[in-house]
User: Fold this.
Amino acid sequence: MKYTTFNQQNVNQLDEPMFFGNPVNVARYDQQKHSIFEKLIEKQISFFWRPEEVDVTRDRVDFQKLTEPEKHIFISNLKYQTLLDSVQGRSPNIAFLPIISLPELETWVETWSFFETIHSRSYTHILRNLFTDPSSIFEDIVVNDEIKRRATDISKYYDDLIYATQLWQTQGEGMYTNEGQPYPVNMRELKKKLYLCMNSVNALEAIRFYVSFACTFAFAERELMEGNSKIIRLIARDENLHLTSTQHILNLWAKGKDDPEMAEIAEECAEEAKSIFMKAVEQEKQWAEYLFQHGSMIGLNKEILCQYVEYIANQRMAVIGMGQPYDVTSNPLPWMNNYLISDNVQVAPQESEISSYLVGQIDSAVSEDDFADFEL
Amino acid sequence: MTDRDNTYRIDIVDTVTVTASPDKTLLESLESQQIDVQYHCREGFCGACRTTLLEGEVEYTTDPLAFIDDDEILPCCCKPTSHLKIKLGF
Assistant:
């Protein structure tokens, strides 16, 4: 089906599925099929922040004091996070927007991606402060094998979905061949690709950031690189919200509250989805090994970090009905929670914290008494 | 239905029974009695504190955004309005 930027057919948006229904026409939010996305948009906008607000100048001094293995840990994590947010800053837009059918979901995806671009810009902010010329760091991201291996897995499901959608929207259903590769395009295949892609994104938001987060906060526990830690806290808060949205999407499908065919696919592809998640967990654990190959840092080592990943994975797999496959029952890094509390993040309410703190708010409850001392 | 000191009884399955005051969030009440509950955002959007509610009623102080099943609550943003029976973890 050809994509149109303004579908002129009259469509009842309340009857549309989240994906693969009619293209969205009027961006209206007075009625919502799934009101959760509208609430997530409001929350995310209330979190707005700019990297430049955070002073990172003291980090440069701290960085010089780090040991070589610690520098490796710090810089490698920034490279990996730069990769993750490079992908997330564009892919939800390119992959999901052309097939979304609800205005509130469309706007949520745009809002979500926009915040990932803030994250990307904040890595440049951090690196520019640490190095006179950060080019070598950025350039290594596309040649470093450890990062490349993860990039392949992260982008694969997006790329599959995007290509199949392009074929479907330009040529319709059918069997296509490109460079000797067969591409069967039909609605069932498209929806399967979407389901697997959403699971891969969910695993990314749930797991892939957490080894890096733990390292950053472990530096902060020693009062090192605190500017960086402040930025990463803001990022962690956003990522938690993004994760909530993918969990909602997966559960709406699985519980048959959206497209009934997606509920069938969720059942059919349950094992594959679970293995996508568990592969992300394995890769995070391998990442911890790569980080600590030259030596660990005070307060953290590979074992405890791997346990933490498994602990987080258990929780996040349980939410989407995947059970708790790992044996960790208590939190091996309890101090992490202090860095993930939402209201420890910002100080001035007008900047981001309280969504009810409105610009130009007026007191609309005026009683007669308010005019008691008023004379003409 | 509160006890004379205006608290509710929180029965945690397989562990202990504690009390909770109706003007603190359930998470704060549990923490003040050294009950370990996982949390992150403390604002209802991350879902880290998801807990199964077996009996009783709670009221939310903020609209929970995180995904929770029909029998689950988010202790970080709710207060008890009756005696409760809960199961920590999930």
